[in-house]
Amino acid sequence: ETGVTQSPTHLIKTRGQQVTLRCSSQSGHNTVSWYQQALGQGPQFIFQYYREEENGRGNFPPRFSGLQFPNYSSELNVNALELDDSALYLCASSFDRGFQETQYFGPGTRLLVL
Amino acid sequence: AQSVTQLGSHVSVSEGALVLLRCNYSSSVPPYLFWYVQYPNQGLQLLLKYTSAATLVKGINGFEAEFKKSETSFHLTKPSAHMSDAAEYFCAVSHTGGFKTIFGAGTRLFVKA
Fold it and tell me: How far is CA A31 from the centre of its chain?
């Protein structure tokens, strides 16, 4: 167990709705990254937050947004859900934002968009 | 631009046999390389990482990987497969000055009794 928790574990939404996914980082970690893992694929980087500020973003549209709170927990928000948003969403926390830092992954939230 | 190619989406070995999972990377700057394992319905767990120290990296559960710059490879090996090794394995790369990790598509390892 990594100490990183995510909620909910599963979620079903319909197209056009909005969703908020939550992540609690491992104690002492100030950086969190979010990934989308479609079925049969590797995780795709969405964005990273460092000390409550966005530190970088992957190739995802603006309807994917995030927040990191003072206790370093975080949220991923997705607006106007599309069918292709169905995936496993993973958050990963790390001690710092460096490229070589070990990321500790949560178990993920599986989102199904109908 | 960085990229990772994992050769073989599925690999099947017998219990006790050598495990070899292949990973090739592309990076214009010195890379940092990782192998992660994902068990069904779980998140990713770090097996090992290369950060420019020794080229042969030893990880958890008996796995190791060798960084070969000339071949741009970082293949994962384990001398003797165990049934509990059956899982999905991901190779990943990041680099100096970058903030994101690029993952390969994954290789599913099957272990036959």
Answer: 12
> Please, are residues B47 and B28 in contact by the beta-carbon 8 Å criterion?
no
Closest listed residue to residue A88, CA positions, set B69, B42, B81: B42
Instruction: Report chain A residues whose CB lies below 8 A from the CB of B102.
Output: 45
Question: How far is the C-alpha of A2 from the C-alpha of A60, rounded, in Å?
Answer: 27
Give the whole-angstrom CA distance, residue A78 versus residue A19: 5
Where do runs of H (alpha helix) occur along B14-112? none
Average pLDDT over chain B, rounded to an integer: 91
- Residues A29-76 have pLDDT tens digits of 889 999 999 998 999 999 999 889 998 888 999 999 999 998 889 999
Q: How far is A19 from chain B (nearest CA, A)?
A: 20
